[in-house]
Design a protein that fits this description.
Oligomer: single chain
Structural class: alpha+beta
Helix content: 25-40%
Number of strands: 8
Largest sheet: 4 strands, antiparallel
Length: 244
């Protein structure tokens, strides 16, 4: 079935070093805070965006106590955290499409950093909408199956019956796609039986681009690394097909 076939393009926190795991938890906590504030509730049953972030947090192995404390902090009257979500779009080396989702308390700092990253590594920051038209927003649930414990047909049927839009097997990984509005229901139907390696709403490229020049490949790798290491960056999506 069609869809997002490149598992190596998906951001993974599972198995990361302690420092990276801590940074990932910090970024997810920031998403929780914004979801509570914008959704007006610390109850995921009444706040679909918060429910989505909780699923993402659990897939990243964020402890339940951390999730609970962050929700309570966000819902508290004295919480002064003031983050805004800003999405940047542009091009990497040889025109690779790049979308960077940020959450920041300083719009000027983040804009300056994003422009610098694109310029330094052979790309350029574009206008809003310049590449997002070539991506689709989808719920993406990734289930690793290195030992082949899961039956492919059974999982596909369970996912589709739960409301998933698509299913795909990519080597030892099962990937389930949903419409964003159906994401929470599909996760709820599958999470008791399967362990998610990743589960979130993503921007999925409609097609992929390869890079032929070694310099372009190195610059693309470096650009993605510095973006992902930036504290203001939540997610980076691109249509580069890295065959490493």
């Amino acid at each position: 079935m069609s869809g997002h076939s490149k598992w190596h393009n998906i951001q993974k926190t599972k198995g990361a070093a302690d420092a990276k795991r801590s940074a990932a938890f910090t970024k997810i906590a920031r998403e929780i805070i914004v979801a509570v504030k914008e959704g007006g509730s610390g109850d995921p049953n009444n706040n679909s965006r918060l429910a989505q972030v909780i699923v993402k947090a659990r897939a990243a192995n964020m402890p339940n106590d951390n999730i609970k404390r962050t929700i309570e902090k966000a819902a508290g009257a004295g919480n002064a955290d003031n983050y805004e979500s800003i999405t940047y779009e542009g091009y990497g080396p040889s025109g690779v499409a790049v979308i960077v989702e940020t959450m920041t308390d300083s719009r000027n700092r983040t804009a300056s950093s994003m422009r610098h990253y694109f310029d330094k590594y052979g790309g350029n920051l574009g206008a809003s909408g310049c590449v997002s038209w070539s991506f689709d927003k989808k719920g993406v649930i990734v289930i690793e199956d290195e030992d082949g414990d899961y039956d492919e047909d059974e999982m596909m049927m369970e996912a589709l019956e739960a409301g998933a839009a698509d299913y795909q097997k990519d080597d030892d990984v099962h990937i389930i796609y949903t419409d964003p509005d159906d994401f929470n229901d599909v996760c709820a139907a599958l999470q008791d039986k399967y362990t998610f390696a990743s589960a979130q709403i993503e921007m999925v490229p409609q097609n992929y681009q390869t890079l032929e020049k070694e310099e372009d490949i190195k610059n693309m790798q470096k650009m993605l690394e510095v973006m992902e290491d930036d504290d203001d960056v939540q997610n980076v999506y691109h249509n580069w097909e890295n065959n490493d």
